[in-house]
Specification:
about 300 residues; alpha/beta; Rossmann fold; 2 domains; seven-stranded mixed sheet; about 20% helix; globular
Amino acid sequence: MSDTAPHDHRDTIFLEQCAVLAHSHFTGDQHLLRLAAPRCAARAAPGSFAHVRCSPTLPMRRPMSIMRASAREGWIELLFKTAGEGLRALAQLQPQQTLSVLGPIGCGFIAHAARPRVLAIGGGVGIAPMVFLTERLVEAGAPFRPLVLLGSELPFPFRKRPSSILVPGMPPEAIGCMPLLDEWGVPSRLASLSGFPGCYEGYVTGLARLWLANLDAEALAEVEVFASGPTPMLAATARLAAQFGVPCQVSLEEFMACAVGGCAGCAVPVRTGQGGIAMKRVCVDGPVFDAKLVFD
């Protein structure tokens, strides 16, 4: 990934007052908002995020990954889990209420046709960018052939069901899928340590290891890994990708204040091409980075 020019984000981030089109609620205080945000939707890309003002009484915004976006219909979807006063307020929003959204922000995932076997790994609310990436790959069509692996210790924010798509290398008990992906013709599998039926009993990276280990050298040469989720999961994914010799892109999670590169409060150490270390802002230099530049 090349360095971001100092002002690449100018004229591409929009401030909109967005109406709530739909608000779905799931077990585990998980929520899915669909917002009328035509300017954000027109520019959103997998891995980009929105900075949301959760309540008029709370000045600090919250960064939230975009799960889907329709430029044609002018909406975006945000998946979140309530944690703290801001997101609890956001969880109370009703259709037709409005909120302030700044976005889309950040450098997203870049899939390469030379590596069409896309392995997308999402954990927790990190599921969101993986769904967005998959939808764009489905729209792109050949040569991409994505496989999506999702992990959660909470009940998943969708009604899982047995998959209709076989995946070589998957254990027989791991048959649960995300129905939306199945409808798109994309294989998906679920992992959890919570004992949910149809899920692989273990970390989602363990499920990824089983799939990668089932591939021969020729197939591995076509694999690229994309991951979003908690930092320990991203670190484990980076190690797994390195072990199998496949490239890996990760979307980092970090606390943010301004989210537009001004405060540098979200800066993280990233290796440079010259062997040194530079501090990069997760908001506008990321949130997506080459995994080997971030994790050992």
